[in-house]
Every structure is written in C-alpha cells, then in structure tokens.
# Entry
Amino acid sequence: MDSFEVNRLPMPEQPCTVEQYLEFERASEERHEYLNGYIHLLESSNHNHSLIEGNISGALYQQLRKTRCLLFLVAMRLHITRTGLYTYPDICVVCDTPQYLHDDTLLNPVLIAEVMSPTSEGHDRVNKFKHYRALESLQECMLVDQRSARLEHYARQPDGQWLLSDYTGLEAVLTLPSIGCTLALSDVYEKVRFEEDSE
# Structure
C-alpha cells in the first residue's frame, strides 16, 4: 500500500528575495515564514491546537458576524512592514478596511491570537510577539496555552506600552475592547483534554 506524502517542495538553500519566497509559498502545500531572505517551515497543528483555534474562531465569529470586523484564520498570510516578517498567525481580526500586499497578504490586523505549542512557545512569546508589536494597527494580542487553561492578553496602552493580563482557569472571561467581544476560557477550551486528564 502506498503511503501518502505531502507535496513538499525543496526549500531554497540560499537567501532569496520576497518575490522568490511568494512564488515558492503559493506553490507549496505547507506554510512557511520568511525573514531576512530565509524561508522557515512552520510546524503543523496537533489535536489540542486545532480544537482551541476552532473554539476561539467560533466564539469570536458569533459576536463579529454582524459587525464591520473580519475574522481571518491561519491560511491568511500576514506581513509586518517595519520588520519584514511574513508569517501566518492562528487568528487575525481586522475592523478597518483590510489592507493587502500582493493581493493575498494582510497588513492591518487589530487583534492577533496565537495558540502556543510546547515547541513554538518561546518563538511565539519572544520573537514573534516582538514583530507583532511593530504593527501600528495592532491593539491586542492573545497567547493561548494548549497544555492548561491559561491565556495571556496583551493590550496596547495610549502611551504605546503593552499591558499584560493573565487569565487562568475555565471560569475566567476576558474582554477584547478593540473588537467589542468577550471570550470565556470555558469556550476556548471546550472539549480540549489536557495531558494530565488523559489515561
């Protein structure tokens, strides 16, 4: 029986231009980040990651569906103009007119959510969030744990500083003023089984 393989294109070994990256990316079945000439493969989602991402998007969609805001999932590529990064946040929300580069790359989210895996947590928390803070449009960012009911919420303050609020436990509910929504952790983690819960 033949085994199924993802159509994986060979990644360029030498630095490449943005145009070369976009040509490569549009032909690839996998997702890649691009920064400073180099392409990096993004890891695939596991069971909990996919459930949490779907739960967040479902909860926000119900509140945003009759507003002017648009909800984008991980298939939407994002470009941070000030740092040069091309990447794929798990969830983006835009409440102004969406701005695009190359017709398929978003520029102006007001909110970003990332579901952190054990292997991506350091990158999401430090490197990626540093790039996200360079987005002038961004007002809120959520870093969501997939190993326990815990969510970090960062909100841009009038002076440009970022305020961290830490939400822990399924009873917690946070407010997202930039998009006029609330988000209950009981909804975020619905049907999610943590490692300590499994037999």
Remarks:
- The chain has a mean pLDDT of 89.
- The longest helix spans residues 47-64.
